[in-house]
Amino acid sequence: MRVAVVGATGLVGSTMLQILAERNFPLTELIPVASENSVGKKVSYKGKEYSVVSADTAIAMKPQLAIFSAGGSISLELAPKFAAIGCYIVDNSSAWRMDPSKKLIVPEVNGNALTKDDLIIANPNCSTIQMVMVLKPLHDNYGIKRVVVSTYQSVSGTGQKAVQELMDERAGGKGFGVYPYPIDLNVIPQIDVFQDNGYTKEEMKMVLETCKIMGDDNIKVTATTVRVPVTGGHSESVNIEMTKDFNEKDVREILSNTSGVVVVDNPAAKAYPMPLDAAGKDEVFVGRIRRDYSQPNTLNCWIVADNLRKGAATNAVQIAKYLHNQGWI
Hints:
- The chain has helices at about 10-20, 55-60, 70-85, 105-110, 125-140, 160-170, 200-215, 250-255, 275-280, 310-325; strands at about 1-5, 30-35, 40-45, 50, 65-70, 90, 105, 120, 145-155, 220-225, 235-240, 260-265, 285-290, 300-305.
- The chain is of the alpha/beta class.
- Strands 2-1-5-6-8-7 form a 6-stranded parallel β-sheet, sandwiched between helices.
């Protein structure tokens, strides 16, 4: 099996290579792809070095699978070219997520929606992925009416330059100007550009993607997304109004029995999920599970995940593994 990783030199792309290796994905030939400026550079995979090639070269090599993490405009241009040779594409950008003809997949939530004909498959936004991992079992058991989410998103979600900017500011420098304001010792209540409705693009991604992944447009979602001076790991405060009442013990048990979700919830021991604990892990962590006493049938919780792994690369590799398990690649 020939596998192309498009954007192999970036932060998410390098994490994809790491996770493909960790999970012993059954590829026989790796094809790292990046921009023309990076052609010829070396990337490491399982102790062996591979030369980065151009997209045209990669297409000529006829991979069965291409995992993209190279930005929306590049995905819009290149994904159809890879698909034209019968290659399956798992795309990590926002390019195809809300295309009604494309599936938006979190394998534990809606992997069974995929068919053999789905050549271009969208990987959801990092913040959406970790939230729906918790929402889905609750929706199945209690029915979700409304979700209010505030995110605390790390700088690694913006990329390598943003991580370096935080470190430079912390050391007394000025960084690259990735953000409109300093990020060290600060929080910035803007992720991506503002839309006409006053919400940012990131906030609207969470609204629209949640309904599509959950397969229920009746779920009402409102979001506020915030960048915080943390190098890796996204956190979310989530308020969930449900149609049926619940017992908090039952909620903990349901979530504990959900594949890919880990409950860390013991206030007496000061046990709750934090980005430091989620670093390098593929699970979604949930804690601070408690009833909202201000209205009926409503739950508060705190959700944390490694945004480069389950929020991006791990989810993409899990989709690829699903395709392989079905015998399609």
